[in-house]
Amino acid sequence: MENLSSTRLTSDIGYRIGVSQLGWFIDVFGHAWHHAVAASLLTLVILLAHLYHTRHSQEWRLMAISLIMGMLVESLFIRSHLIIYIGTASTSPWPPPWVLLLWPLFAITLPVWQLKLTYVPWQILVGSTCALAYAAGVRAGAARFPHPAISLSMMAVTWSGLLPLLVWLSKRLRL
């Protein structure tokens, strides 16, 4: 198993955060501005380019695990009426594909969190702020909260457990 050195990862921090944020903006705003297919395709290209760039076999696994977790968590959010994605059938219990692409994008940053947030309570605290990404998506017009305070609170609680779990998986896969 190839292990990314701390020095290499430190030089990759800007790249990893930049790629993840670029993909997030393209995907979320593309959907909000009614260009969901084009935005999703471009986001997919960004993900594939990242995988080609890193050539780290374990990164594929982490991104795939994140995608599966995303399917479960987003489905839970939808079924619990915490969020409604604009343009999605209200009867669909499944998240739209463009939302699922956000999860492997987030996985790109996990080695950064692993390096910078070695103390689990910090992971829990930072994880709880991940709910703000949903609020930004709502503000952009890509989704809406039926009950904003409840939605953000439940998402913050969920993410305060998810980030430590995903960081642990990243460590386990030796990224």
For the structure shown, list the relevant keywords:
9 helices; two-stranded antiparallel ribbon; about 180 residues; mainly alpha; single chain
Question: How would you describe the overall organization of this protein?
Answer:
The protein has one domain. It is mainly α and 175 residues long. It has a two-stranded antiparallel ribbon with strand order 1-2. The longest helix is centred in the first third of the chain and has 27 residues. It has nine helices and two strands.
Question: What is the makeup of the main sheet?
Answer: 2 strands, antiparallel
Q: Rg to the nearest angstrom?
A: 16 Å
Question: Helical amount among residues, as a percent range?
Answer: over 70%
What is the chain-wise order of helices and strands?
Answer: HHHEHHHHHEH
The strand order across the widest sheet is 1-2
Shape: globular
Number of separate strands: 2
Overall average residue pLDDT: 90
Roughly what fraction of the amino acids lie in strands? under 5%
The total number of structural domains is 1
Low-confidence stretches: none
Class from secondary-structure proportions: mainly alpha
Number of helices: 9
